[in-house]
Write a structure and sequence with these properties.
The protein is 5% helix and 39% strand. It is mainly beta. 14% of the residues are buried.
Length: 142
Amino acid sequence: MAQAKTGNHVRVNFTGKLDDGTVFASTMNDDPIEFTLGENEVLPAIEDAVEGMEPGETKSVRIAAEDAFGTRREDLVQEIPKASLPDDMDIEVGQQLWVDELDEEPIAVSVVDISDATVTIDANHPLAGEDLIFDLEVVDVA
């Protein structure tokens, strides 16, 4: 069987969990993810774990927060005036918004609080600050 190496296209089933066992993503009831090793299409620690694996092989890997989606940054949580949003915009806690940055790509933010005058948004990745565990199964190596 072929071992996965840089340049190979791989198909991988995975279950991503938090330290407390909460599953945040899984392909077990869906199609496997597909990526090319060495193309930085997934977290580097996932690529490192998959390299050398063969179809049918399984492995569990723990990724520290700083090697996954980074540590949580409080400077990425901001209050903005409600008046700065369009009048016809209905917003709810938990909603995802896209914010245009000057001369940069738009970024995704989450609405975390709403008051009479302000909306608090969070630009941290939802998994920032979390150590992650991935159970991996290589399905195919091409």
